[in-house]
């Protein structure tokens, strides 16, 4: 009985050691054996990349819009106002596309759009 416990502990130690030393190799391998499971893993990876693209675009265009809003806040003129409104419409477009693809929930999209509009109206009333 004692020998089997020691043997099991040795095996578990070796298994943990192999996982920790080869962790960078395991990430790139597909662990599934069934064909449909392998396909699902590939599809999931592809969809994850596509979803990241949409959410990244939302973040990028939001940052661009907020930067242009700061520029308008410092220097309010019609040219900067046109840039702000253009960036706002592009950001709304990206948010709507992400919502259409179910990357963002419709309430999350509405909240983001509302916050962006509120920031714009606040800066516009101050200037």
What does this structure look like?
The chain is mostly helical. The protein has a domain at 53-126: Helix Hairpins (Orthogonal Bundle), CATH 1.10.287. Helix content is 85%, strand content 0%. The chain has five helices and no strands. Helix 4 packs antiparallel against helix 5 (106-126). It is elongated and about 65 Å long.
Mean pLDDT: 85
Give the topology string: H per helix, E per strand: HHHHH
| Span between termini | 82 Å
So what's the overall shape? elongated
Percentage of residues in helical conformation: over 70%
Spans of at least 5 consecutive residues whose pLDDT stays below 50 are: none
Tell me the number of helical segments per DSSP (H or I, 4 or more residues long): 5
Please give the CATH architecture of the domain at 53-126: Orthogonal Bundle
Instruction: Characterize the biggest β-sheet.
Output: none
* Rg measurement, Å: 25 Å
CATH class of the domain at 53-126: Mainly Alpha
CATH fold name of the domain at 53-126:
Helix Hairpins
């Amino acid at each position: 009985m004692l020998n089997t416990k020691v043997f099991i502990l040795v095996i578990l130690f070796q298994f943990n050691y192999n996982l920790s030393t080869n962790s960078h190799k395991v990430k790139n391998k597909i662990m599934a054996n069934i064909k449909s499971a392998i396909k699902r893993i590939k599809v999931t990876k592809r969809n994850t990349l596509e979803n990241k693209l949409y959410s990244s675009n939302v973040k990028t265009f939001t940052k661009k819009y907020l930067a242009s809003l700061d520029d308008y806040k410092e220097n309010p003129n019609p040219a900067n106002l046109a840039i702000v409104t253009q960036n706002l419409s592009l950001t709304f477009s990206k948010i709507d596309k992400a919502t259409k693809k179910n990357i963002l929930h419709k309430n999350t999209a509405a909240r983001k759009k509302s916050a962006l509009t509120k920031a714009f109206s606040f800066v516009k009333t101050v200037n």
